[in-house]
Amino acid sequence: MSRTDRASRLIAAPPEIVYGALLDRESLETWLPPDGMRGRIQRWDPSRGGGFRMVLTYLDPVDAPGKSSDATDVVDVGFAELVPPERVVQQAVFEAQDPSYAGTMTMTWQITATSAGSEVTVTATDVPPGIDQAAHEAGIASSLANLASYVEAADRFTAG
Length: 160
Known about the structure:
Blueprint: E1 4-11, H1 15-22, H2 25-31, E2 37-45, E3 51-58, E4 72-83, E5 87-95, E6 105-114, E7 117-125, H3 133-152
Antiparallel strand pairs: 1-7, 2-3, 3-4, 4-5, 5-6, 6-7
């Protein structure tokens, strides 16, 4: 059975700035890893049909063992759709021996302009059953909070 996880957040930055942070290698390495993790991109092609490979390392793997090794999650992400500045659709495949993490998860980042900036909604479909739903939704919310902090920083966005 297919599962859908989602989270959303209002971000005080225009859609163009938010969209740009979704397609910039250094930006993604900074804000995408949820709390308790750090990320490193190994391969990068920010075009439709391109994508990236990210190694996420748990800062404390004792409480959260990785999918790919004791301390890491490795994910290959393809860009299935890029609609500036409204939507980024990613196809994510985890590198894991455990079949409960197998399959392709679709992550849709929808950016909607608001009077206060942008509402960003992340919808994950076909989530592998090995991924705990509450932990996944908390991770998405954490990444959105990191994204908000990143793009709302004074040196990244100046109104007017």
